[in-house]
Cobalt transport protein CbiM
Amino acid sequence: MKTLNWKVLYFIAVLLFVPNKASAMHIMEGFLPIEWAIFWWAVTLPFLILGFRSIRKSIKENPETKMMLGLSGAFAFVLSALKIPSVTGSCSHPTGVGLGTVLFGPFAMSIVGSIVLLFQALLLAHGGLTTLGANAFSMAIVGPIIAYLVYKGATKAGWSFSVAVFLAAALGDLGTYVMTSVQLALAFPSEVGGFMASFTKFAGIFALTQIPLAISEGLLTVIVMNFLKKYNVSELKALRVLTKEAR
């Protein structure tokens, strides 16, 4: 676990101190009309309150899982800070929220994901402060909720732990980008075709790169979760991640 933590810290250091041009899918500062920026902040705030309560409860019941919470934040920070060029001239990136969602649930990730987005906006010029509410709603709320529902559904269906984690991470990633496309389409409806035409345009921009990224994120999340299953069984049991069969 210590080796993994050092690797995570190394990647964060590289991302912080190696200059990059920030042009990824986080909605950039000032891009949204002010009324939509305020609207998404208002929608996001109740989830942040629920997230704070969820984290406080988890840490109070299982103090030993603090390191796992930090790992979830570092994982999301590293993956969502990566910028992969798209064939359309834009960029896409993973989200990294699937891991923390499986470990702590969707509401906890609303706080973790929002903190990640805040640091990226301040340190990497990746996203923005006025658009933080919108970015948090798509990546830290909608993505984790989809990942959680998929994970629970796959588990109840009797699918293997690895398959459930893969689907949760991959579909949570895709759900984030669908929500971002909805946000942009609502703010900038097309003159011809309105919301649907605009949504199709925004969603299509990232489709070619985001699907392979979602698959890659799902596979990476499975690798990390299997590592935790091997070396951090007690923490996973405390968080009720492992089923009786997996234990």
Q: What stands out?
A: The two ends are 19 Å apart (CA to CA). Residues 27-239 form a domain with the Arp2/3 complex 21 kDa subunit ARPC3 fold (CATH 1.10.1760.20).
